[in-house]
Amino acid sequence: MDELEEIEVEGQTLEEAKIRAEGRLGALMEDIEFTILQEGKAGMLGLFSRPWRVRARRRESVGERAADLVKGFFKELGTEVEPSVSRDEDHVLIAVDGDFGWFVRRRGEALDALQYVVAAAVGKKGGERIVLDVGGYRAQRREALEKMAREVAARVRESGEESVLEVMPASERRIIHSVIQEYPDLQSQSRGEDPHRQVVVQKR
């Protein structure tokens, strides 16, 4: 990532100085590191007052740290990548574009493993999850799982018999559960012990 910007700002109060820094850096206050350069002083009738002066530097965000790790990982494999970072309501998405079929084969096991390592390395902030996608695999897999879930729902509604799906990781089981919730006459649940849990779809 590029070197992070550092600025100096003043305010009549410490809070005012911090808010000004927040606006100039275009970052949340929690993502800024502050150093007090001068403590403010209130003078009599506004005379001989002294403003607060702080140095502000934007910290590298969770997403930026994760992207740096992913970039370094692929560099070790001899491939230069430029991961993009975006934030959703509950997760930070690190996406790498390109043809990486060699990396996401075997149902994304290597992708899941790298995602786990990166998430553990950067930690969590505000409950955000790190989600790593390479070559659009996550979106394609989600589309395939949603299609499968609707096909299973149709079979269960027609036959009345429950259907036990293949073993899936938690992230994929959540997609199945989400689709089945669209059918008021059906329900789904996970059975078994990790890493062999399966989704069961049945009529209510």
What does this structure look like?
The chain has 204 residues and is an alpha+beta fold. The chain folds into three domains: 53 residues, no CATH class; 74 residues, K homology (KH) domain (GMP Synthetase, Chain A, domain 3, 2-Layer Sandwich), CATH 3.30.300.20; 64 residues, 2-Layer Sandwich (Ribosomal Protein S8, Chain: A, domain 1), CATH 3.30.1370.50. Helices cover 41% and strands 26% of the residues. It is built from five helices and nine strands; from the N terminus they run E-H-E-E-H-E-E-H-E-H-E-H-E-E. A three-stranded antiparallel beta sheet has the order 1-3-2, covered by helices on one side. The protein has a three-stranded mixed beta sheet with strand order 4-5-6, with helices on both faces. The longest helix has 23 residues. The protein is elongated and about 85 Å long. The chain starts with 5 loop residues before the first strand and ends with a strand.
Structural descriptors:
204 residues, alpha+beta, GMP Synthetase, Chain A, domain 3, Ribosomal Protein S8, Chain: A, domain 1, 3 domains, 3-stranded antiparallel β-sheet, 3-stranded mixed β-sheet, 5 helices
